[in-house]
């Protein structure tokens, strides 16, 4: 859904682009419900429907905002642009209210997860620190203690997005908060990951059995 309400000649807007998804530009002409936009890359996009352009907040901070609720416009191009801007400076975590958006850095960022970072995030106020998966674990843990009942963290994303890595970091931090090694010298983190692996193997075995039964029926 576009936001044509205040569009006039000279307005900064986002328009769809087949190569980079969204590109920013300036409105140079308006004819009824169609606009002509001069895009940043010098292409002129003629006859873009008014309903397919989105306002661009050119006063947004150049490094992006660490919580999307602070964006002036919360539409797709603004959200993607903010995430891309932060990603360029290796800021892979961004809040959207109390949800954490994690981008896959496709490279090890070990400095983000060491014990000194864990120390800083332990019991800290969200406002004082950069968005981090440790904050999510910390808040969930403290709520669990306060309420005296189980809590859960939902990690979702498409295949390869980084759910397993994110879950490992959550486990590592929760194990750090727990503060002690488990049975046979294994850490809580190791034990939890071993249990996850067992569940996965069990799931694969059940599916293999189902497949074999279906195969036997059709044979
Ligand atoms: N926070 C991160 N730091 C460093 N590398 C990461 C991070 N998140 C993801 N990666 C990289 O991306 C790869 C894929 O991530 P991961 O296995 O966590 O995805 P997934 O969402 O669990 O995928 P699937 O649903 O297919 O199992 C990892 O092997 C790792 O190389």
Automatic annotation (TrEMBL):
GO CC annotation terms, alphabetical: cytoplasm; membrane; myosin complex
GO BP: actin filament organization; pollen tube growth
InterPro entries associated with the record: Kinesin_motor_dom_sf, Myosin_head_motor_dom-like, P-loop_NTPase, SH3_Myosin
The keyword Ion transport is annotated on this UniProt entry: no
Presence of keyword Transmembrane: no
GO molecular function: actin filament binding; ATP binding; calmodulin binding; microfilament motor activity
Chain ranges of the Myosin N-terminal SH3-like domain: 8-58
Residue ranges annotated for the Myosin motor domain, each copy included: 63-219
Origin superkingdom: Eukaryota
Pfam families in alphabetical order: Myosin_head (PF00063), Myosin_N (PF02736)
Assigned keywords, A-Z: Actin-binding, ATP-binding, Calmodulin-binding, Motor protein, Myosin, Nucleotide-binding
Gene3D superfamilies with a match to the protein in the record: Kinesin motor domain
Transmembrane segments: none
Binding site for ATP: 157-164
Family: Belongs to the TRAFAC class myosin-kinesin ATPase superfamily. Myosin family.
Name listed for the protein in its UniProt record: MYOSIN
Species lineage: Eukaryota, Viridiplantae, Streptophyta, Embryophyta, Tracheophyta
């Amino acid at each position: 859904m576009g936001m044509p309400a205040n569009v006039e000649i000279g307005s900064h807007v986002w328009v769809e682009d087949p190569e980079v998804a969204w590109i920013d530009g300036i409105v140079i002409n308006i004819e009824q419900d169609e606009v002509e936009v001069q895009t940043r890359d010098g292409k002129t996009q003629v006859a873009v429907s008014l309903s397919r352009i989105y306002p661009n907040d050119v006063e947004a901070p150049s490094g992006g905002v660490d919580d999307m609720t602070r964006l002036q416009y919360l539409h797709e191009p603004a959200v993607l642009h903010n995430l891309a801007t932060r990603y360029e400076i290796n800021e892979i975590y961004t809040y959207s209210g109390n949800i954490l958006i994690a981008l896959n850095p496709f490279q090890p960022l070990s400095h983000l997860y060491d014990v000194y970072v864990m120390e800083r995030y332990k019991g800290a106020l969200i406002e004082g620190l950069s968005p981090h998966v440790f904050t999510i674990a910390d808040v969930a843990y403290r709520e669990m203690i306060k309420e005296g009942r189980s809590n859960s963290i939902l990690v979702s994303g498409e295949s390869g997005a980084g759910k397993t890595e994110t879950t490992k970091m959550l486990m590592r931090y929760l194990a750090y908060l727990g503060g002690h090694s488990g049975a046979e010298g294994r850490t809580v983190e190791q034990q939890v990951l071993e249990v996850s692996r067992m569940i996965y193997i069990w799931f694969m075995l059940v599916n293999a059995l189902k497949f074999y039964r279906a195969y036997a029926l059709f044979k």
